[in-house]
Amino acid sequence: MDRLLRRELDAIARDRRSGAAELALRAVTALQSWLRRHPQPSKQELLDITRVLLRVQPSMAPLLRLANEVALAADSRSPARYLAVSAASCRNLLLNGPRRIARLLGRALRLGRHKQVVTYSYSSTVLAALVRARFFLERVYCSESRPGYEGRALADRLARAGVQVWFETDAALFSRVSAPSEPLVLGADAILRTGFVNKVGTSALVQLGLRAGAPVWVLSDTLKFWPRWFSRFAFMGGPPRQVWKPARKRILVLNPYFGVTSFHPGIRFLTERGWMTPTQVRGELNRIRISPRLKALAG
């Protein structure tokens, strides 16, 4: 792997603020640039890139899917051509998928009775959809999303686009969905067979919302679909000092970033292909072809 590609992948690995789709687009762009510099890649070069991609952001399915495509390219008859086509397809989905999702969300809000929504953490897909639907929304409720404060970035970008935002603490947001509320609109870093991966705290928020009768809509393109062939699905955590610096002795400070929210009947997924139930999501997962090399490369 050359220095330019490694530098960009290392930068993506350090990024704790951007969403999965944004980071995947950066990775695809870097990979396409690398392929132009190395038009006849060897199998070993492709496998080396696969190994790195699997570790860049192991909780984010689009990067795992990209790693899988590189591994499949290594075993194809024409690795360069296979990779060029699959990278272009991934890029097209990352660019156009959110636009399609945004149109569908706007239509649902325009035709429905909901004029307010609640969201949590940061998702570029959710951001694009809410901005497009701003003419049908009275306000968006969101929170800080501690300790990384991704919610501030979401609130700021929504406000700049003309969306009315009511911003509060995470605890206050949880209290809000405990009563009958408006739709809970969420993003996802990965969608597995039994649930979806998002910011830690999402599971409790969803359970409170469902108990209060709120619809739960998860906005995600299908590049975030990932079959759970991994027995150890990696969940990244942050440095303890991000939560408490310094902490007293005998205090173990934990800083998990991600968690899995189990599927429930009240959850619906909005993808570039339209609305899906958890059952339909599992059907799509069954169609994804996984490279037989991936388990060994993941270690």
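Above is the first protein from milestone M3; the second protein from the same milestone is given next.
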Amino acid sequence: MAEIALKRLETLYQVSQAIGSTLNVEEILNVVIDQVTAVTEAERGFLMLGEEFDDLSFQVARAMDQRTIESPEFQVSMGVVERVAKECNPVLTDDAQSETWLSGRASVSSLKLRSIMCVPLMVKGKSIGLVYVDNRMQTGIFTQNDLELLQAVANTAAVAIENAKLHQFEVQRARIDRELEVARQIQSSLIPLHAPEIPGYVIRGCWRSAREVAGDFYDFILRPNGEMAVVIGDVTDKGVPAALFMALARTTIRASLMTDAPAETCITNANQLICADSSSGMFVTFYYLGLKPGKQTVTVVSAGHNPPIRIVAASGELETLPGGSLPLGIEVDQDYKQTDLKVAEGDLILLYTDGVIDAINEYSEFFGLSRLSDVLGLCITKNADEVLEEIEGSVNAFMGDTPQFDDLTMVAVKCAK
């Protein structure tokens, strides 16, 4: 018995050394099967991973000469595999041909299976797979000591496999984090760093993504006709897909506006181009505000976006700018119409995405349009920077410690002398 115990310890040490020298899951699996077949003198070894029987899949199937066994699903007793997977208890059979509970299994008879051992791979009381070894030539080749040794090796291997998976996951996550950071930097470069100077107006913008990348954007585009286009958009989705679609929409809109055609024609053309590329079903709400240098007239075009709010300096009242029409990317035949509006010195126009009014607090309440209006009602004499600061501060105070759910984007346009 002492000799058997010593051999068991030596084997476990060798296995631990072998599988502890790498964090590559595939290498660990191969080492485990090679070690198992060697110490148990098994003819063949199989390793499967999966928490449930229906999820089990063969990862390694090797003969004692380390040759890969093809089509392993047709080379083992699935009756044994099923019992171990469902009961999480080891199985040892001296002669599968004479086992009553295996007598009806076609695989046992067709493969002429004899000695079989199968044990679960257990980590913290949970099965993550199993190890199966057999010998088709001899009966009674495996003993209870062999089964205990196989289970001990499997337990050691299970921990190593889980650690390797965690390491692999961390490596992949770090790579994804790096790629997302690069994507965020690229996307941030698409948002204007500085607002343009245009006679008669002061423009300021605010862009804050809820995730690493965003579906919101705003842009300032100097058109060939001298009009400054202030635009804002919000892609219907979130995350990476929305960020990619945002880049497509922004580029298409910017290119479409670089003509002398009326804004409504440019936006209609942009919609047709976006529809042609929008196979994912995503769309973007959009608003166009055209500023004419030195003139107190603005041009607006709506594409299903939240209508901007205007603070009328003369009366202190709030007005909603024209809205309506479908978002870009839904209906290729949609026509967009522009409207010209008179503005006066001291007026302020706020363009915003629904990340402002849809901000949620700990009680699952929305910030809402009424709270936004209340804040704007106190900003009649404030400049563009101060208005954005007031709104952002109010939204932050409202959310408290609740994580930001949606991207938050605003542009404030103050009518000056």
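Note on the second protein: The chain has a mean pLDDT of 87.
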